[in-house]
Amino acid sequence: MNIAVKVQAVETAADIAATPLEKLNPAKVDRFYNDTIWPVFERLRREDPVHFTPESEYGPYWSVTKWNDIMAVDTNHEAFSSADGIGLANLEAVAEQEKVMGERRRGNAGFITMDEPEHGPARKAVSPTLAPTNLQTMAPLVRERAGQILDSLPIGREFDWVDLVSKELTAMTLATLFDFPFEQRRKLPWWSDMIMNMPGHGPVESWQQKGEAMFECFAAFAELWNQRVNAEPGNDLISMLAHNPATRDMPIETYQGNVVLLIVGGNDTTRNTISGSVFALNKNPDQYAKLRANPDLVLPMISETIRWQTPLAHMSRVATRDVEVGGKTIKKGERVVMWYISGNRDEEMVERPNEFIIDRERPRQHMSFGFGIHRCVGNRVAEMQLTIIWEEILKRFPEIKVVGEPVLNWSAFVHGYESLPVVIPHRA
Amino acid sequence: MATDPADAEAIERSLEIAGDRGGDLTPIVYARLFERQPQMQVLFWRDTTDAIKGEMLMRVFDAILDFIRERRFAHHLIQTEVVTHAGYDVPPDVFATFFGLVAEVVEEVCGSDWSPAMAQAWRRMLADLDDYVAHPDQAARSA
Fold first, then answer.
1. How, if at all, do strands A159-160 and A335-339 pair?
2. Does residue A300 sit at the B interface (CB-CB below 8 Å)?
3. What single string gives the DSSP state of each residue in A107-121?
4. For chain A, first and last CA: distance in Å?
5. What number of CA atoms fall less than 13 Å from residue A279's CA on the CB side?
6. Does position A102 have pLDDT exceeding 90, yes or no?
7. Cβ A124–B55 below 8 Å, yes or no?
């Protein structure tokens, strides 16, 4: 069951302009939900690109909003640690979750929440599965499954694109990467939604239910681990972790963290870009026409959507020492948020950044996968899935028509879609 | 160690000339990379339009420009690229090869406008870049 909560008073650009700078909290979730975040970041890039919010539901934090400053933080892992978590955490939500699940270390999302020297070997344990050469082997299977999904869609009747296509394709690919029981694949995006949402949003109804879902997920993956560790080494992610000397003896909590990372990372970014591409092409019919006329534009269209959508709005770090960024001193122990969603709209780096233009001169110039040692390990899988699904869509459907407003995620982290109503008028 | 301002100017000038004369340098740079490191070619199997290669080369130019001037991120970016590429079995010497052949191609495209000052500036910068490639451990380097 999806529960979407509408916020009564939607903030306007004038309200944002009138807010004293020191009161500006760019991570206010309702702005992401209502799609009113853009004036906030435009103002910060212009007036206070490295901005401090002293009080918020997340505690105090710095916001880094311009491309080059984000690059400076993202690539400097010695000065900016990931070990205490890579997203802003709502303090009230953390306390509630602890009541159900017990106290867990804040930075507990696998190797992405490790610093060097632990991080490198742990990441290297899974990266061969996601490397370009392995994806070449996987591509025909992804194409076959993408075709099956598209061939089963209703024609001339409204349906939710997020549910029937975006979630389904990522579920199929993730199940393949994990060698997870294929008939249970939809549990993967469901667990991802349970992990990433708070009660009242996505499928989460209560903290208790959320906790139970996470325990169910961990139990299923514990079983997979036990199967793989006692079998010959395979090419799937769990087998890689179970047999690699760097990860085979990791504590159970670290394994669970890796599971969370791989499920959420493998699910949210790809699925929200698939949904985002349909939405953006509908908002920009001239670009949709260009794509139909020239299917070679699929690859740049995917990159443009990844920039325009920015499916993960931010990543955060904690300063390990006093560091200067963009003329401001960030003190040791302070939390820093790199707003990729703002860097991707930095007027100094991207021409006409608010526009969706599928044949840009540099379509791949975006920071949605991050930079540095924590750069998205699955970026090539994501691009492969997105390219294949669009190549197959163009063969089958002249048009996918958005027929209502999308419901956006209640999150300042995952920037995506709960639902997107569409109609496919007819087949090609 | 920051790049000498005269070197930075010479490198920038050479890149400007190469940009004006050479058009898109992607095909020639990558043809040479694959000639010298043929095992790299398979990593680009999806890149039928050169878009991935082209963006990588643009990032190299962006990094060089940052490296020779403000050095806000380029030195750290190079270190982290060495680390992340190791996960795809791309050895560090590929980076040294790549920077070297970018220099080679820029020199060729500049033709008679390639000056001794440019040659010296590129030589010094390549040595400096190689040092970051060879020492990707940020903690050890900043200690």
1. unpaired
2. yes
3. S-SGGGG--TTTHHH
4. 33
5. 25
6. no
7. no
Write out the two tokens for B126: 């390549």
Cα–Cα distance, B93 to A339 (Å, whole number): 33
pLDDT for the residue numbered A104: 62
Q: Mean pLDDT of all residues in chain A?
A: 92
Sequence-distant (≥ 6) Cβ neighbours of residue A319 within 8 angstroms: A79, A80, A81, A330, A331, A332, A333, A334, A336
Average pLDDT over residues A260-272: 90
Distance (Å, whole) CA B110 – CA A375: 35
Query: pLDDT per residue over A322-340, tens digit each?
Result: 999 999 999 999 999 999 9
Q: What is the largest CA-CA distance in chain A?
A: 63
Residues of B in contact with A117 (CB under 8 A): 137
* pLDDT score of A222 more than 50: yes
In chain B, the domains with their CATH numbers are: 5-142 (1.10.490.10)
A203 and A190 in contact (C-beta within 8 Å)? yes
Extract the tokens encoding B23. Answer: 């058009």
Kindly state the helix (H) or strand (E) to which residue A81 belongs, with its residue range: strand A80-81
Q: Is there a cis peptide before residue A117, judged by omega within 30 degrees of 0?
A: yes
**Is the ipTM beyond the 0.95 threshold?**
no
Residues of B in contact with A375 (CB under 8 A): 80, 84
Task: Indicate which of B62, B76, B90 best probes the interface with A, i.e. most A CBs within 10 Å of its own CB.
Answer: B76
Q: How large is the average pLDDT for residues A96-117?
A: 78
Distance CA A279, CA A395 (A): 19
- A49/A124: higher pLDDT: A49
Alpha-carbon distances of A90 from A59, A60, A83, rounded to whole Å: 8, 11, 17
Q: Are strands A335-339 and A417-419 parallel, antiparallel or unpaired?
A: unpaired
Query: What pLDDT is stored for residue A182 in this prediction?
Result: 93
Those residues of chain B that have pLDDT short of 70 are 1, 141-143
Per-residue pLDDT tens for A280-301? 999 999 999 999 999 999 999 9
State whether B88 and A71 contact (CB < 8 Å). Answer: no
- In chain A the domains, ranked by start, together with CATH numbers, are 13-423 (1.10.630.10)
DSSP character for A347? Answer: T
